[in-house]
Design brief:
With 330 residues, the chain is of the alpha/beta class. It is 32% helix and 18% strand. A 6-stranded mixed β-sheet has the order 7-6-8-9-10-13, with helices on both faces. The longest helix is centred in the middle third of the chain and has 17 residues. 48% of the residues are buried.
């Protein structure tokens, strides 16, 4: 893998001197912000801690982590990020959450931000370019939004008689909701399907969405990418099975919870790779870097739970690896 294929956090305005953080305690504090619920702390939080641990950093030993599980309550992000910025947190990590990354970017231009987003970070305004992110943000783009049409196509291949597709969306996740509103109708029309977008920002709204699916006789379910909906994967899979509605999802966690199939990235791997890594430079300054992937290094997988399913299956592979700044000691 060539060195230029990676985006490093260090460079230009993103090399933060120790003096800028002189008021912080000896143990750096990382703020972890996720759209998921705290019920995912073992899986998603564990993956994040594994990423830190690969460089010898252990929570409560030489690094402190503040966990903020939003449970889909994206409206709290402005006040949360303002508080983190006021307190001078060492770094803000927002793996697999477009809303959290955007809120962090809006709240601070100095605190390092490590994101994991499913849309183009340049179009989102998080970085200037993939090759030269600039500013105080860098991270991973896992392109879940870019493969919506492919996911719908795979569902159509698996359930060819299904023509009416219901798609739960979380309107609180603005970027995901806008992508669904923009891309799904066009992708459905291209293969002769009808799509109905249903609000699902709470557990009650998910229940109401299934009532609407039964009323409108939906043939299949396409769950849009969202941290809250991923946290509700068991509810979604259980309800889909109860009503006999085949479902397609954006992460393998959701298919493993009982959905028919998934096509998309391994989000737990995104959580691991998005862990900011404290390192020592040749000048003995504490700095933070992030393992980051460009478009060419992203990968997707699909799994299918139907017996005899011929859908593509890919071994999850990680093309990201730890990167070093040019002045880091070997």
């Amino acid at each position: 893998m060539k060195r230029r294929e990676f985006i490093t956090l260090l460079g230009s305005a993103a090399a933060w001197p120790l003096a800028a953080r002189a008021q912080q305690p000896a143990m750096p504090v990382v703020a972890f912000v996720s759209g998921r619920s705290s019920g995912d702390s073992a899986r998603a939080g564990g993956a994040f801690r594994r990423g830190l641990g690969e460089f010898g950093y252990v929570e409560s030993r030489n690094l402190a982590v503040e966990y903020h599980w939003l449970d889909g309550r994206y409206e709290v992000l402005p006040s949360l990020m303002a508080d983190l910025a006021r307190r001078g947190i060492a770094v803000i990590a927002t793996p697999a959450s477009n809303p959290a990354a955007l809120a962090a970017k809006a709240a601070t231009t100095t605190i390092p931000i490590v994101f994991g987003v499913g849309a183009d970070p340049v179009k989102l305004g998080l970085v200037a370019s993939l090759a030269r992110p600039g500013g105080n943000a860098t991270g991973i783009n896992f392109f879940s939004a870019d493969i919506t049409a492919k996911r719908l196509g795979l569902l159509h291949d698996l359930v060819p008689k299904a023509t009416r597709i219901a798609a739960p969306v979380n309107p609180g996740n603005t970027s995901s909701d806008e992508a669904a509103q923009r891309d799904l109708p066009e992708a459905a029309r291209a293969i002769g399907l009808q799509i109905e977008l249903l609000n699902a920002s709470t557990s009650r709204e998910i229940e109401a969405a299934f009532v609407a699916m039964l009323r409108d006789r939906a043939d299949a379910l396409l769950v849009t990418p969202d941290g809250f909906l991923t946290s509700r994967r068991v509810q979604l899979a259980t309800s889909a099975a109860r009503y006999g509605i085949p479902s397609a999802h954006g992460s393998r966690e959701e298919a493993e919870a009982g959905g028919l199939m998934s096509y998309g990235p391994d989000l737990l791997e995104v959580y691991r790779q998005a862990a900011p890594t404290p390192v020592k430079s040749s000048r003995a300054r504490s700095q933070l870097i992030c393992r980051s992937c460009s478009r060419a290094n992203s990968s997707s997988s699909s799994i299918c739970r139907r017996p005899g399913c011929s859908a593509s299956r890919y071994q999850i592979r990680s093309n990201c690896s730890p990167t070093r700044s040019s002045n880091e000691t070997a």
